[in-house]
Amino acid sequence: MTSNTHQPLGGNEMPRFGGIATMMRLPTVADPASLDVGFVGVPLDQGTSNRSGTRFGPRQIRCESVLLRPYNMATRAAPFDALRVADLGDVAINPYNLADSVLRIESAFDAIVAAQCKPITLGGDHTITLPILRALHRRHGRIGLIHIDAHADVNDTMFGEKIAHGTTFRRALEEGLIDPLRVAQIGLRGTGYTAEDFDWCRDQGFRVVQVEECWGRSLAPLAAELRERVGGGPVYFTLDIDGIDPAFAPGTGTPEIAGLTVPQTLELIRGAWGLDLVGADVVEVSPPYDPCGTTALLAANLAFELLCVMPGVPRRD
Known about the structure:
- The chain has nine helices and eight strands.
- By secondary structure, it is an alpha/beta fold.
- The protein has a single domain, classed as 3-Layer(aba) Sandwich (Arginase, Chain A).
- It has an eight-stranded parallel β-sheet with strand order 2-1-3-8-7-4-5-6, sandwiched between helices.
- Helix 6 (199-204) links the parallel strand 5 and strand 6 (207-210).
């Protein structure tokens, strides 16, 4: 174990209902240069199109993360044995101006990426992924993308606006941030405005996996296929919680029926083992629509699973 790594606060040191609610009860660190991976909150919901509330997502995810322990008993991943991981706190967004918030997010992640710290971001609506990709692109060039979502988020505009949670990946492609031949979108579903809504993505070269391809089967083989497709360069993993069926994740702004199961989502994340992941996020958690905290608990676990597949994480024998 590296001597300067941080460990989550154990339940025998402080009861899990006590103490300060950081991600996994890790210390809060101001300097990303002291970390290999940092959890970052972006409490934004100005880009949402239906139900707001994702501004409360990072805080609730941290609250529910108190149940998490440092070892992944399924994969035997031991992220805290080798990596310096802590909570970097929240980006101070502008609650009155979406454009300024996007600039603030981009600036904050510029500093994190420049410090060679890999961010795992707690959202916040899906608008936040665009400024994060901008910051990562400046260091890594064009990035591959694994994108779990009910929606493709490739609208040209929403109410005439170019920046919103449903335009993120069209802007990312237009700006040259992502490599379209190394993009996979999984879980897309629901109704559309035209029969060709998802065909735009395919026309760009994205691998589109509509949810019907996933029903009733293990996604481990798909994860292996996607690993081959998006590999060969830096990769970002973005996970919209509405990609998962609302039976498991009701606390989100744009729920769609018949989504991925939790085990399928775990298979997709665990299948990213070995990729050159440069960051990840879990977005669109809206706690007001799930008073039991189930959605935030799921998001906390998924963020931990993403940590467990970051480069350099060992697996115990």
